[in-house]
Amino acid sequence: MQTIDLQETGLRDLNQTLHAQSETTNQTAWEILNPKGAHAIACGLDAPIEVTVKGSTGYYCGGMNKQATINIHGSAGPGVAENMMSGTVIIEGDASQYAGATGNGGLLVIKGNASSRCGIAMKGIDIVVHGNIGHMSAFMAQSGNLVVCGDAGDALGDSLYEARLFVRGSVKSLGADCIQKEMRPEHLALLADLLERAGCDAKPEEFTRYGSARKLYHFNIDNAY
Amino acid sequence: MCGIVGLFLKDKTMEPQLGALLSNMLITMTDRGPDSAGIAIYGNELPGQTKLTVQSDQPEMDFPALEADLSAHLGCAVSMHVKSTHAVLAVPSGLSGPARAALASLRPAVRVMGRGDTLEIYKEVGLPKDVASRFEIATMSGTHGIGHTRMATESAVTTMGAHPFNTGDDQCLVHNGSLSNHNSLRRKLRREGMHIETENDTEVGAAYLTWRMQNGATLGEALESSLTDLDGFFTFVVGTKDGFGVVRDPIACKPAVMAETDQYVAFGSEYRALVDLPGIETARVWEPEPATVYFWTHDMPPHSSSKAA
After folding, report:
1. What ipTM score was computed for the predicted complex, to two decimals?
2. What angle do helix axes B182-191 and B201-214 make, rounded to 10 degrees?
């Protein structure tokens, strides 16, 4: 286990040290102490290492992640795991706005609640939130899966493309072109796998699926002025 | 961008540390806006007196004889405490209006930053650390306070464009965001007789709240109607004589984190601002909901009221 204390080591040194790890590194376990809400912790990693952050983080923790597993033992600030490509980011606490925004791949697990715009413009990432999510979540989401074990706020899935949204609790309101859809066997299987990987004991049958009505993103002459 | 902070103490034994804690919170937010900074402190109350915090760009000219001149003009005792470009004038209760009028003729270059029984406002162009040290904020004791560090977008970087803005006796406002309808609202409020000095958007927001309250609204009601009447982005933190409140616009892009323990309620644009507060590790930490007015006072239990966006 390698330990880096942000009270003693600068953020740039920390990230350069983590960036220097290769696919074949033997130093696979890293612990970061005293994050104290600092920005851009463990951003841009590209190695199969496991990083544990002992505390709460600021903007953009785990952004652009590839391969790495990042555990945040605290809450995360805005833009956690933004544009993640692969790997896993697990947040023990809550996540601020636009968690997992534009994510291409990998798994983001939020064990508390997520704030507004969770999964905005997501492009293939899987996001599992154990608690609730705020308004405008999955806005213009293109692909990937957003699983919410609690409730969703206003305007869920507004202007949605092809992402799949699964909500166990209530949805305050659906955004434009987002509709409830039937849950087919393949969705139940997909959901069972995601819930298991996210360490969540909710049952797939308890969820409702939402998706795009596909009326907004095709050109429609009736919408022209 | 801008950074805002607030600290409301429940534990009286922490009051001597208010200025130091609040300054440190604001200094942590420096990289959210380095143009200008300001802090409002709710400090001690002088029996039978009310305070005017005034500012001058030429304090060596304006301040030396001001105490005596104002005292002679008003025909009563006035005390003055000078700190750098600011001075706090204590006048008998009920005379803040005449004192303001007298200042306009005695010292036309002096600007009033704030007025109230306990409120003092200090703000200048510069970094939070420089503004805090210039006014010795860290030595100040008080019950609660709010602070702001500015990244100017809507108007010039000047003392008068810095926050907090005084909205009425013992009331002030800091703002992160930008209002889009401030020009039309300024014209409307000026027609209603409101005095607005600058092209700053937040000053219009502050004048709007003052106008609503002059017409019978409570601060809570004024904040709720601001959700309808103000267009743009805002996270507001407001201070009153015995409390402080928070409201975010319905979109809630501008960040906000709050922490509460048995000793205090704290607000920061980011969690970073809160990390050095005592007991933060076990505090309840959360983000205030959009379009919801939160309020804490010493007399009432905490409450919030939400309004549909």
Report:
1. 0.92
2. 40
